[in-house]
Each structure stands twice: as C-alpha cells, then as structure tokens.
Design goal:
The chain is an alpha/beta fold. Helices cover 31% and strands 25% of the residues. The chain has a 7-stranded mixed beta sheet with strand order 1-7-6-2-5-4-3. The structure holds adenosine-5'-diphosphate and magnesium ion (MG).
C-alpha cells in the first residue's frame, strides 16, 4: 500500500512541510507532482519555515530556481515553464542537487528522466477544494526512510 497522508487546509499542508524539514539533510531531493493549485508551493512554504528560511517563498515560475538560506540551503525549482531538458544545465540543476542543501522541485515529474535515481516523489491529489491527498513514492532506500519518518511526523503533529 502506498504511504501518504491527507491535509484539509493550506495551513495543514504547510504544517506537513514544516514536519518534513527537520528530517532533511544535504543532498535530499524532493520532486513534487500535482496540477496547478494542488498545493506544491504551500508545501514548499512549510518546508522553508521548518528550515528557518525567512525570505518569502513564492512559485519561482519565471526563475526556474530560487535559493533560500535557512539552516540548510533550500533550492526551490519550478519546471512548469521549462521546455528543453538542456536548460537544466544552464541553471546548474545537476550540480545544485548534489550540493550543500535540500532541493524541492515543483513539476519534477515533467522531466523525471532528469531526476537523480534517489529522490522522493510527492504526488498531490486534489480531492475537494480544501482536501489534498499526498502520495509518497520513494525512489531509493533513503527516500523510503524519509517517507515513513515524514508520515509518522505528520501523524504525531495531528495528534498534538
Ligand atoms: N489542503 C490544502 N493544501 C494546500 N493548498 C490548499 C489546500 N486547500 C486549499 N488550498 C489552496 O490551494 C492553492 C494551492 O496553491 P499552490 O500551493 O500555489 O499550488 P501549486 O504550487 O501546486 O500550483 C492555494 O490557494 C491554497 O490556499
Ligand atoms: Mg507552485
């Protein structure tokens, strides 16, 4: 059975992101999949808050990459407008993924062959206006550990 969790508001999604943050370490790659308005950016905002990022996190649609300095650097990609996979070289995509921070990639599934073998894919399903199902699809052992620790953390949070 695939692992995951459900949120019932944007705030709950941000809290879920904040719960992931302390579990992350340099080199982790999180790919986000889901339609426009699914809640990808909301999740990234929560991750940023959990990492201690103070700058505002918005969809970096026109930039492809926004860098935020927190406890760990947060590399926030949005590949929505990316047309050619070669453009990823121009923005230092591959080097960035292997560097000193955590990379979160909105629309990462659009260029799944460009993702590293090890990454956690988060598929966001919009169930109603306010309800989202988060499906965690780990690629690699580390991503599997991250996924189960994250689900535990979100459940613990919900019971507080
Ligand atoms: N459970 C939820 N989780 C995340 N966003 C939600 C939720 N319920 C409603 N929303 C709304 O959905 C929108 C999600 O926007 P955003 O995070 O920018 O989506 P994306 O980056 O996937 O295009 C926001 O307007 C947010 O308030
Ligand atoms: Mg977005």
């Amino acid at each position: 059975m695939p692992s995951g969790f459900t949120t019932r508001s944007a705030r709950e999604t941000r809290n879920a992101g904040a719960a992931l943050a302390p579990l992350l370490r340099a080199g982790d790659v999180i790919a986000l999949s889901g339609d426009l308005g699914a809640g990808k950016t909301q999740l990234v905002q929560g991750i940023a808050r959990g990492l201690g990022v103070e700058s505002a996190v918005t969809s970096p649609t026109f930039n492809l990459l926004m860098v935020h300095r927190g406890g760990l650097p947060l590399y926030h990609f949005d590949l929505y407008r990316l047309e050619h996979v070669e453009e990823l070289d121009d923005i230092g995509f591959y080097e960035t993924l292997e560097s000193d921070g955590v990379s979160v990639i909105e629309w990462g599934d659009r260029f799944s062959h460009a993702l590293p073998a090890a990454h956690l894919l988060v598929v966001i399903h919009r169930r109603t206006d306010d309800v989202r199902d988060f499906e965690l699809v780990p690629h690699g052992e580390r991503a599997g550990q991250l996924a189960s620790a994250w689900v535990d953390a979100v459940e613990t949070q919900g019971h507080r």
